[in-house]
Write a structure and sequence with these properties.
With 423 residues, this protein is mainly α. It has a domain of 277 residues: Orthogonal Bundle (ABC transporter involved in vitamin B12 uptake, BtuC), CATH 1.10.3470. It has a two-stranded antiparallel sheet with strand order 1-2. α3 runs antiparallel to α4. 47% of the residues are buried.
Length: 423
């Protein structure tokens, strides 16, 4: 039997007992989007934070989510093949410099390609270390992050110093990637949004934020998510790649070149992370700056884990992190303070769900946390400025803490594999 004839849901380990995993129905996502907008509308009315569901906040959330999502998508490719990629941050750093260098000298589209190529170089280094030489994945990833930071500093000083507007820590201003808007929608939707009609205006703000002044780079990122889902779960090649992360011994016994698939997956991971870095240079800032990734590679890894190693969940997690960052940047303490009420309600719902499932320890912990957050919202008017910068990272920790019990990583993720181990 060849791997190409296997059903995508079939376990790759021939000794495993088949289990039926519940899939979310197609109607879940539109219902979830409508429910989220309803919750934001309620928050806007209760707290008076009108910017919390504005089109500007939605647009900013999408822009902030894209580099996180691309890094997480790179991690998904790597980990589905069984390689833990802590080096996403380093690959993004290389991508920011590549986009700055090629973007300045050859144009915005060349900058996108340059960021991807530099990310691929990072992916090749990671693949050589982990797949070819069997270095521990965590050690290799940390080493790549540290090395990439130093390489980017050196290259910036070497190639940007002396250029107009450039210097040791930054590039000259870069050309912009084209932006697109759906014709004849922004004006009417903006009018409807300004009327502050409960839910209707919030829904108009969502549509306006997703259809006005959207970077072409964002559209490319969405297409990459669709393409990844199709490749991973609808093609024989994707099945072979996923089998390498579930049971490489079984995959090799069925004729899969495990080493090749792992190496290609890590290389693709570098390309996607490099694209995330290119987005930061070309779209988010229109300039390369030292340290501009700001840990987004790690947040992308967290978003991938939150999404249970699937593109849809990864996209939702990236938007969550992007939205909290947008709320912090646009409204400061007022917007984040309004979100505290939503967090308290969500934690209370989690507590009830955990208690109904008989998990008393987790349920009581969630309830106490909900009480503390609720009291914080009730007894204060804003969030201290010292805590605002940590909002995305606190969101990351909070989400992972309460999502951990439903996660299932690839069975062989992080394991060092040598060719012929199954013989």
């Amino acid at each position: 039997m060849s791997v190409s004839t296997l059903d995508p849901a079939e376990p790759t380990d021939p000794t495993a007992v088949p289990t039926r995993r519940r899939r979310l129905p197609l109607w879940f996502w539109p219902v979830a989007i409508v429910g989220t907008i309803f919750v934001l509308a309620v928050l806007r009315v209760i707290t008076g934070a009108n910017d919390i569901a504005s089109s500007g906040a939605i647009g900013a959330a999408v822009a902030l989510a894209v580099p996180i999502a691309l890094a997480g998508l790179g991690g998904l490719w790597s980990e589905r093949a069984g390689v833990v990629n802590i080096g996403l941050e380093g690959m993004m750093i290389l991508g920011t410099w590549g986009a700055g260098f090629f973007g300045y000298h050859m144009g915005a589209w060349a900058g996108i390609v340059g960021g991807m190529v530099c990310g691929i170089i990072g992916g090749i280094i990671m693949g050589l270390a982990t797949v070819t030489f069997g270095v521990d994945h965590i050690v290799a990833g940390v080493a790549l992050n540290i090395t990439a930071m130093g390489i980017a500093k050196y290259l910036a000083a070497r190639f940007f110093t002396g250029l107009p507007g450039g210097g040791v820590t930054q590039s000259p201003p870069l050309p912009a990637v084209p932006r697109l808007s759906v014709p004849f929608m922004s004006g009417p939707l903006g009018t409807l949004e300004s009327k502050q009609i409960f839910f209707v205006s919030d829904l108009a703000a969502l549509v306006r934020g997703l259809t006005t002044n959207i970077s072409a780079f964002t559209i490319i990122a969405v297409l990459l998510f669709i393409g990844t889902f199709y490749f991973m779960w609808r093609t024989p090649w994707g099945l072979r790649l996923r089998s390498c992360g579930e049971s490489p011994v079984a995959a090799e016994s069925l004729g899969v070149n495990v080493i090749k698939y792992k190496f290609l997956a890590v290389t693709a991971s570098g390309a996607l992370a490099g694209l995330g870095g290119a987005f930061l240079s070309l779209v988010a800032a229109n300039i390369y700056r030292d340290g501009q990734t700001g840990g987004r590679g790690y947040i992308g890894l967290a978003a991938m884990i939150f999404g249970n190693w699937r593109p849809g969940g990864l996209a939702a997690g990236s938007l969550l992190f992007g939205y909290t960052d947008a709320a912090r940047l646009r409204g400061g303490g007022a917007n984040v303070h309004a979100l505290l009420l939503a967090i308290a309600v969500i934690l209370l719902a989690v507590a009830i769900w955990q208690l109904r499932r008989g998990r008393r320890k987790q349920g009581y912990l969630s309830a106490l946390t909900a009480l503390a957050v609720g009291l914080w919202w009730f007894l204060s008017d804003s969030v201290p400025g010292e805590l605002l910068g940590a909002t995305p990272y606190l969101t990351t920790l909070l989400v992972l803490a309460f999502a951990a019990q439903r996660l299932r990583m690839p069975a062989a993720d992080g394991q060092i594999y040598r060719r012929g181990e199954g013989h």
